[in-house]
Amino acid sequence: MDSINRMAIELVDEALDFAGELGIEGYELDSGATVIDFGVDADGGVEAGMLLAEIQTAGLATVQTRMGEVAGTPRPHVELSTDRPALALLCSQKAGWELTFDDFDGLGSGPARALVGEEEEFHHLGYYDEFDLTVLAVESIDLPTDEVAEHVAETTGLEPSAVFLPTYATGSLVGSVTGAARAAELAVFNLFEAGYDPTNVLSINGSAPLAPVSYDESVAMGRTNDAVAYGGRVHVTVSEDFDEFDRAISTAGPDYGVPFEQLFEDADWDFGAVDPDVFGPAQVTVDVVDGPTYTLGETDEDVLADSFGL
């Protein structure tokens, strides 16, 4: 298997080459690390968001949009498909790197995590990457500082000049696109947490509606999570049956039906206090090869309409 960081770097090069067309901006920090503003001060856009979702999945997924509906109104949907779900979604796309400093707070996703390999997914899959450049996509309302870049460099064992940090706010078009692109990832992660071997997931397709952008990060975080939990739909093909496929969907949580902004407020914005089972797509169809097919969950357009202000 080729390095997922190498594959992601090729897409980062593409982003930098077409920065003007994508509405993004790249620049170098004093440490030598490269920050790419996908949606903090830069406008970004849907195309930039789709490219960033491809970067987050290390080029192992296809990302596109289609026109659909929410509550009878036209609404773009983001679709992601991959035949390498364990690597693309768990080892790369998953947002598993917390970045907390005195003057910066963010959440990292992307293939840089595979150079560290401390999360349970890497131990289970036995996958650890090696490459001389790395990419960590950062979700934050602020652009990364040298302190952040040097932390990523030290943790991955690289020089700061080898670190690329594409960054976006949740409340941006890129934030809405990359959030919607997580429906499939959340389904696979939930199955892994339930004890299902992710290598049995052969192929997966996910979609979710594009949440309206709000510059209020509290509203944006609520809407992007609602888009997946109440509008996300996933089709997955697996090689082995399982008696807990229903753990993949958001309805597995007792708080299903409550908009995420309210859930976060009730938890005083302590995300760890929110029942993790509610993070997932609304509906999943599972095809077991040479076996049964299951369809689990359902979308809730009433919650979406309220969340999106329709």
Which characteristics define this entry?
310 residues; alpha/beta; Methenyltetrahydromethanopterin Cyclohydrolase, Chain A, domain 2; 6-stranded mixed β-sheet; globular; hydrolase; Methenyltetrahydromethanopterin cyclohydrolase; cytoplasm; methenyltetrahydromethanopterin cyclohydrolase activity; EC 3.5.4.27
Descriptive overview:
The chain is α/β, with parallel strands linked by helices. The chain has one domain: Methenyltetrahydromethanopterin Cyclohydrolase, Chain A, domain 2 (2-Layer Sandwich). Helix content is 35%, strand content 25%. It is built from 12 helices and 13 strands. It has helices at residues 4-17, 19-22, 46-56, 85-93, 112-116, 120-125, 146-156, 173-180, 183-193, 217-231, 260-266, 301-308, and strands at residues 25-28, 34-39, 62-70, 73-82, 95-101, 104-109, 134-135, 137-139, 163-168, 201-209, 233-238, 283-288, 293-297. Strands 1, 2, 5, 6, 7, 8 and 9 form a 7-stranded mixed beta sheet that branches. It has a 6-stranded mixed beta sheet with strand order 3-4-10-11-12-13. Strand 8 (137-139), helix 7 and strand 9 (163-168) form a beta-alpha-beta unit. Helix 8 (173-180) packs parallel to helix 10 (217-231), helix 10 crosses helix 11 (260-266) and helix 10 runs antiparallel to helix 12.
